[in-house]
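Slide 14.
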Amino acid sequence: MTTTTTTGTTLVIGATGTTGSRTTAQLVAAGRRVKAASRRATALPGAERVRFDWYDPDTYDAALVGADRLYLVPPVGDPDPAGVMLPFLERARGAGVRRAVLLGSSAIPAGGPAVGKVHQALPGLFDQWAVLRPSWFMQNFTGAHAHADSIRDEGVVRTAAGSGRVGFVDADDIAAVAVRALTDERAPGTDLVITGPEALSHDDVAAVLAEVTGRPVVHQRLTHDAMRDRLAAVMPPEFAAMLAGMDAAIAGGSEDRTTDTVRRVTGRAPHSFRRVVEREA
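Slide 15: predicted structure.
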């Protein structure tokens, strides 16, 4: 097991989100100093709260004071996050930040759209870096997400993914990898594709949810266009088209894989979907 550094303060941007809250909690539990950054400067146990808004550069400097490493969750729903993230990262480097760990996506490689542009730029900004590229979150079906809402309200999960399989991953496991990437003596210096232990179709997901909760849950298969139009009713059309396109890619097999990243980095196996549903649903 790699040794961890003994000093340093991590600025967690997006500290109230799905992975940010878990990363903050795990860092605090490990005795690390954390500045928890969010738009409302929400208090989190054991962390120093600080206001941060990607779209308000006046919040940048105070957030960066004393931080030497960053956990970066891109602004939600922005199809071109590099526009705000890269100027901030330049400022962070100037303020003394030495390490940056970026939350990306298994579906988006370096140089790809959206967060892929930030991924591509990161090694040129920081000597110590990593990009976490998790698969789809298991919490999408149990937490605050459109899938979870439709499951609770209607017993339905709707996708354009067909019978395509995904290596769904527990956000707790993503956070565990993030903590190691932030605190190990040597930063990974690469991207890490993070999955759960098995690849599941959305039909499989619905079956597990029904078994564990005792309530009927079905997967409704939509066409790409129907999915895009449904999403566009609640988000910018460009972002809706990107998400529907990701579903279509899943249908074509793009996410049908598992990796050993969680076990290799943390020393333990990733959690199964059934275990997460039993814990959270």
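Speaker note: The chain has eleven helices and eleven strands.
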